[in-house]
Structure formats: C-alpha cells, structure tokens
Fold each of these.
Amino acid sequence: MTVRRGRTVRRGTVRRGTATALKYLSLVLVCLVMVLPLAAIVLTSLKTSREMSTGGALALPHNWLNFANYVTAFERGNMLLAFGNTAIILVVSITGTVLIGSMTAYAIDRFDFRHKRLVVALFLVATLVPGVTTQVATFQVVNAFGMFDTRWAPIMLFLGTDIVSIYIFLQFIRGIPISLDESARIDGANSFRIYRTIILPLLKPAISTVVIIKGIAVYNDFYIPFLYMPSEDLSVISTSLFRFKGPFGAHWENISAGAVLVIAPTLLIFLFLQRYIYNGFTAGATK
C-alpha cells in the first residue's frame, strides 16, 4: 500500500510539473507571437531602403540611431495634423457616445412607452447587420447632408452606430435601485435632473468601459476616415500611413516609423492606466 501511494504521489507530481511546464510554454509562445511583429516594426523603422531590400524583417539595422525615417514619417505623413484631427474626432465621438448611450439606456429602463420591446429588438437587429452592406445608402445620406469630406462625417457615423454602448449602460442602470429615482421625485426633481445628479454619477464603471472600447475603435478605424475624408488636410493617424504607399511599392521603413509613432501614445496610455482599464472591463463583465 505504501509503495502504491508513493507511485501515485510521484505520478501526481509529474503531472502537475508537466501541466506547469506546458502552461509557461504556451505563455512564452503567445508572448513571442505578440512581440515579434512589434520587434519587426521597430527594427524596420531604423533601417535604410538598401537594408530593407537586402535583409529580412528581423535583421538588425547597421545604425541604431537612424531616426531619419521618423522625421520623414512625421513630416511627409503630416502626423501632427493627423493627431489633431484624430483627437477632435475621438473626443467628440466619445463624449457624444457616453451622453447618447446613457440617456437612451435610462429612457429604455425607466420609462414605459408604446412598442418598447420592439425598439429594444430593433437595437439588437442593428448589431447583427454588417456595416459594409449599408455603406452605399450611408454614403448617400452623408453626402446629402453636406458632411462628406468634413470631420462631421466620421463623428456622426461613430455616434450613430454604437449600439453596444447602449446595452452596456442598460445593464448598469438595471442594477441601480428605482427607489433612488422615487426619492428624488418626492423632492421635486424632474427626469433630467435625476439622470444628471443620480444616474450619471453611478455609471462611472460603465463610462470607463465604453470610453475604452469606443476609444480603441475610433483610434484604430481606417475605413470610415479613408472613405469620408479623402482630403489631405483631414487625414487621421490611420490614413496618414497610407500615403507612403506609392505606385511602385510601399516604403516599409517609413510606414514602420509612422506605425511606431502611432503605437507609442496608446502604449503609454495603457502602461499608465492599465489598472483602470482592467477595472473597467471587469466591472462591465460582472454586470
């Protein structure tokens, strides 16, 4: 019996050791998959055109202080103007999404009106329709309102197509007791004051979740700015990189330098605000 128990313990120890080794091996592989593309971009941004044509993507550059590609990307790509346009679109879109989404969720949860279930069902149906299939009609509407080739085109599209934020706010509002609304109404508060003074301050976890999700989507979007803002003075960070694509090929060293300039702000924001980002996603998941 003692021998059998010893063998069982050894087998269990071997299995736990194997499981631990496989776990760390999988983590190392995932890290390599995530880090290798970033390393290739950084190395490419420090190379010259000749080095790009003779070496591989992971080949080391001869001069580690070659920042000429960054200067070219910043100047020819109009990165400063692109960052400004992106910031304007980002701030207005996120602010409008938070206000419209929270107000809509508040009205759906707290008010009774005719065809309420139909409205909620239509919101769900809208999330199932691929956005590409409606781009012809959307382009005609945007052009008819005179918003084509202006910043208002992506702003209005980002505001009008974010059904996910409504459902995020709706899940949080359903967790707020209705007794708070009733107490405020006894004190003479109207619906908008209840929303502004009671509901909105309690939606901070939901707001952080929506800001993170929406901010990443707007910052990384290429299709909408490329289609609705073709002018060079209205370029954003995603479309500015496309300017290095010429008729005879792509200038990958300049594109990589521009990609590093684009990645750097989001990486710094993530490093400084990762605790709030994780808390926002966790709060949204638990609701």
Amino acid sequence: MEGFVEFDSEITLLTVRHSGGTSFLDPVGHVQIDGDYRESWQPAALPAAALAKAQQMAAAVTGALGGWGLFGVELFILGEDVLFSEVSPRPHDTGMVTMVSQDLSEFALHARAVLGLPAGGAERIGGPDEPAAASCAVLAEGTGVPRFGGVDAALAVPTAQVRLFGKPSVSGHRRVAVTLARGADVRQARERARAAAAALRITLD
C-alpha cells in the first residue's frame, strides 16, 4: 500500500558501519527536483528527538543489510517523527558536501570502513566562523563533450571549491560538476555554493 506523506523536510543520514561499530555524520539536508539531487547542506537542523529516532532507524536498516562501508540513509522528517525513505549502500550524492565540511569526506570514510581501517569519526573543518557547508549540482543538457568556462569566477566566491566530474560525454540531462562552499550559517553557505555554480559556463562540443 502507498500513501501521500506530508513531511517537513528530507534528510540523508550518512551512516558508517566499520570495525569499531556504527557511526553517524551530521544530518545532511537536501533539495531534489524530479527525484534528482540539486543542493545539499550540513548540518540540517533537526529536533533532538527526531535526530535520535533517525539514528536508531539508520542503525537498524544498515545493521539488517550488514557489511562495512558508508550508507546514505534517506529519511522524511515530520516534526519529531521520522519515516524511512530509502538507503544507498555507498557514498551518496547529497553527501558530496562532506568534501568541504569535514576532514574525512564520505568517500574517505567509505574506503577506510571497507578496508577495515579506523573510520569512527570525522572532524568538522569549518570552525566557529563557518560552521555550515553546502553543495550545488551543476547540470548540462544536450549531447557532446562538456567544456567548462568561468572556473576562475566560481573560485572567486568566498570559500568556494569546484569539482569537475570529467565525463567523457553527455547525452541528455546530466550532472557534470558540483560546487562547494562554507558559511556562517546554512543560508550563507547555500548562497555561496549557488553563486559559484552560476558562475560556471558549460558548453557541449
């Protein structure tokens, strides 16, 4: 049976199963359009009761699946209640924000976990002045080899970083890059990531 769910927000709780147990990263908020990731930010604001329930649910789901590695557990937040949405047994697209938010990204934690190395924690790197981080997907539409312009302008945005995916070709509607930024709060971090994304120019040859 299916039903329409009225929810306040959707988050990804990046959950790491490793040799030392199960660990959770700060919740990641995100925006999806047509079921596809567009923006994410960390930390997502959650009531303490909702965060506790989210962690319990993520631990139960990943524990039932078993194995070591990083899992992207997507959850719907309804006040202090939590509903399970889906799980990806691998680094998650919304978790790309961790490349700028913490010293060990989701990719580094996944590699450590599957290799049986310590993966019990990651330190936030924003500091008290820039405790929030955000990512923004950059898309191309059409057919051809993506070429990038405006990288200098994107990197001129305060704290901004750019990752170009290096896809050999694009056919249709594809993500080809992501911009990352930190800020004094989530709003500023998202604004900076968006500004960097807007500065990039994508052409298809």
Amino acid sequence: MKQLRFLSLIKNSVVLVASMLSCIFLCYGLSFLFDDNNPFAVPIFILGVALVSRFSDGYFCGIAASVIGVFCVNYMFTYPFWEFDITLTGYPLTFTVMLLVSVLISTLTTQVKQQQRAMYEAKSENMRANLLRAISHDIRTPLASIIGASSVLLERNELDDVSRRELLESIHKDAQWLTRVTENILSVTKFSEEGVRLKLTDEIAEEIVGSAIHKFRRIDQNIEIAVHKPDEILFVPMEATLIEQVLINLFENAVHHGKYATKIVLDITADAQRATFSVSDNGAGIDEAILPHLFDGSLLAKQEASQDGSRNMGIGLSVCRSIVAAHGGRMEAHNHAGGGATVSFWLPMEGQHDKR
C-alpha cells in the first residue's frame, strides 16, 4: 500500500510539473509572436489546470495548478513583467475569475473521476457476488457426485470390478473438474485486481494452441478439433500459461455446453494490430437470452430455475475475459445462422499493448 501511494505521489508530481512547464514554454513562445503582450496566457493555464485535474488523483494537484497558473500569468505574462502586481485596473477581477474557474474545473473533474471509480467498484462487487453464486453451484454438483460414488464404494462390498472402476472414474473426473474450478477461482482473484500488469513474451501461436489441445485431450479424447492458422509463423505477445488456460476453457465450454457438438474449429488470424483466436462448434448454439451476460459471471442467476445439475460455464468464461483483458484484448461471442456458436478473443500485437 505504501508503495502504491508513493508511485501515485510520483505520478501526480510529474503530471503537475510537466503540465505547468508546458504552459510556461508555450506562453513564452506566443509572447515573442505578440510582442510580449500575450492574450492567450489565461486560457492556456486554465487548459493546463484541466489536464492536471484529469490525469492526477485527488484535489491537491488541481488546486495547486490553479494557484501556480494565477501566479505565472501575473508574474511572467502580465505587464509589468517579472513583478507580482494586482493593483492594475481590471486585473484583480481577471485573476480572481481565473482562480475560481480553475478550482471549479479541478473540483468537478475530481468528482467525476470519483463517481466513475465508485461505479467501477460497484460493478466489480456485483461481479464478485455473481461469481460466488456460480462457484457454489459449480462446486456443489461434483461434490455431490463424489460423495455419492464414494458412499456406494464404502457401503456395497459386493460390487464387481467393472462397477467399482466406473465409480472410481467418476470420482476422478469430478475431482479433476474441482481442480480446474479452483484454478479458475485463483485466476479470477488475480485478474480482478485493478492495475494488474503481465510480463509478456513473444510466443509462437501454433505452439501455444498445440499445447492447449494436448492438455485438453486429457479431459476429452473424442471430439474432433481442427485448426486453421496463417502459413507464416505467428509471434504474439502473451503469457503462455494463461492463454493456454483460456483456450482449454473455451474447448471445454464447447463440449459441455455446445449440445450435440461433434467438432471444434479454431481459427487463428492476425494483422498489424491484433491476433484473433476464434473457437467455433457445430452444436446447438448459445441461448440468445444469455449472450449479453456470457462473460460477466451472472449466468447462474439465469440457470438456477432449471436446477438440472449442469455445470455453469460462467466461471470459465469470466476467467477467460479477465485474462484477455489483462493482456489488453477483448472477448466476444455470437451464434451461427446454421447452428453452433463462436467465442473469440483478440490480443494486441507488439507495440499495441495497453491500447484499450
């Protein structure tokens, strides 16, 4: 926390000093053009105050910029130059109005940023609440299955080897599911934090996709997966382990929620700004009613009524969105006219990271 405050102080100081120096240099340049009579000094410094208020935190820097601006205009760019004089006719009113306008701009800008921050925090809190409900739903189903299967194994000694193996495989499968849910929860916790920064390295997209498919095959060995990729080697800035998790989640989502899907197609495309990964299936598609909420972790509220024990896809997709957003990218989904759906995400290419 102390380090964050120190970094915020450094940032605010840099913004204040850079903005005021820029205003001073600009006004000096205009003074030479207008024979020392600079009619633009007041609006230039008001603009500087607005910029300081926009890019700094709190009220202090904006108000400090207001005072500095009034002093600079009076001392440097008002006759008599290099003297602080408020006795000349009309100047006291001019500078008072300038100070009030500057302080007002600073105050309003800070209040708007605080309101935006409060809205963001409220939205984040709502997302966390939805995720907690979804998590309880996702965990309850495999736990009930594990308890039921283990109880049968403990209570029924007469079971044959085939039945025992089936129950053990069911327990193993549900335990793997719980492991993946736990990993997703940890990812949501990490990437819900504001200001998270990743250490990105250029990775070969084909290798990351191949690794994700190989790991997914441990979960499902039956469904066909086709990959369409560029002919040339594609390097994409990313954190490889996280993007693998995104792809695995999307494959698993297509299998469990695609309904009758028999094939998954992964299309990789790229241009100078971004690389796009699209995972499509030939299943029944996604319910149009939940498409707008597909990535916000609130799907459980829309699915609870059925109580069919199906596992919620909201957690996995919420994790995917958090990871992709941390990379500076975005996710989207749509249904196909002929059946099936596509969930895609794009990542910024080199030099494009942090451009949202």
Amino acid sequence: MSNPVTWSRMRTFLAVVDLGSVRAAAAHLHVTEPAVSSAVTQIARHLDTDLFTREGRGIRLSAAGATYADYCRTLLGLAEEAEAAVQAAGTARVRIGAVATAAETALPRLLATFRARQPQVEMSLSVLPRDELFAELVHHETDVAIAGRPPRGSGLVSVAERPNRLIVVAGASYDVPPPTATWLLRGAGSGTRQTCLALLEQHGWEPPFLTLGTHGAVVAAAREGLGLTVVHADAVAGALSDGTLRRVPVAGTPLDRPWHVVTNATPSPAARLFLEHVCDSDQPEDVRFHPRIRPRG
C-alpha cells in the first residue's frame, strides 16, 4: 500500500485535532507547518477521504475525521499499553487518572505509599473531568482511573470502591433558602455538576447558577458567601471543622457516591500492582479501596 499510516503521522493528525490548527500543532510538535500539513494529507490520501473541512479561515474536523481520530487514540494507547505489558512490572509505568476531588483527597497517600513500596514503577497522573477521564481509559491512554462509576456499556471495569458522600455546603454567613439560593456548579463533564443538577430537578427548583469550573474555585466561592454547592464531604472536612463552611440540610442528601477504581479489560502488570496496592488490607481504612466481588462497568 502506498503512503502507509505511521504512528508519527497519527500523532501529528491528533495534534491538529486537539489544538485546532496546523500552526498550533506544528508549534507543539516543534516541526514545520508544511511537515504537519504533509502528514495529514498523506493520511487523507491513504484513506481516500477528507479528514477536515474548511470553516472560514480555520478548519473543522469532518465526520470521517472524527471517526478516524477515535481509532487513532485507541491504537496509540494500545501501542503504549503493549510496550508496558512486555516489560517487567518493577520497571514499567502506570498511567493514573483522577477527577480533581479524588486527586486532592483519596489519592495522595496511596501514591506516596505505592512509590515507597514500588520505587521502580514510573507513575504519571492526569487530572481531568470524569467524561474526559473515561474517554482516555476507553482509548487506552490511561491505565487506572479514580472517579465515579463508569458508564454502562463503556467496556470499562470498576474493580474496587471506597465510600464517599456528597453534601450541600455554604459559607458560614450565607443564609438564603436552597430553592432560591445561587447554586455554584463545576464545569461541563463533571459528575458532581450532573449530580447537583439532578438534585435540583428532583426538587423542581430552578435557582440561579454560577459556574466556576474547578473544585477549588467552587469551594472558595462558597466560603466567600456566593451560594450553595454540592461537594464531596471528605474534601471540605477541614472547612466544616473550622467553621468557614457549614452543611446545609437538603432533602435527599447526603448522597452516597463511592469512589471507584476503574480500568479497561486488559490492565498492564504495573497497573495490576497498583490495583493490588490500593486494595491491600494493610492500608488505613480511610484510604483503602475494597475489591468488588463482581467487577462491573
């Protein structure tokens, strides 16, 4: 076949997809713009289809391009996973992903103790919204994720879980009734945001919203008296103790939303080492995850 698609060309194509332009991809990859254009053109010729369409002065991913990008992510992720699978577990790498709140609360001590126990295993951590995190797992770009329950039918597997509760909090002096209060929301793709919106819909409330994006920004805004928010109890234990936040009673809360340890169906040896570690009975009860009798996804 002429013009075979290489790993390098796939990575170049995905850089254009992710960054939105040939110029940005070239700067990110430290290559020339003609080199990027050539790589994308060679793939398009090989597939005999248009991967991008013109949109004003820019470009937009075509339907065929979006489909191909999805496959590229999976193929590149599997290639990295294959390399890890044939290495000795003690010298391999585990790619860990977590939603922001888990990265700040449930994960740090586990990472520290895993590093002490397995110093030769290289670790990387990506902190992403839940939807993006699960997409990385599906594409084999991440080995293990700490987040909520994976979507049904995703092919992802929840192998262990740890108790976690969501509560409603506000600043110490904020005293507006929940039906009319301003509700502070996380950004799109956040499981906590979706839970908060579902709670409001359940009550039939249509209050004003203020979207602040990150967990830290939402909690800081609540402290300053900007409104109410749904948050993980573990993440605000200190603020509740020192009185800068107070718990607001709302029917239907607290909500049980366990943290899940999620993998794809073929975890690498290093990933399995990490899974064994987080479920080890020697772990303190407040950080340990409990294996699921029947892993599910």
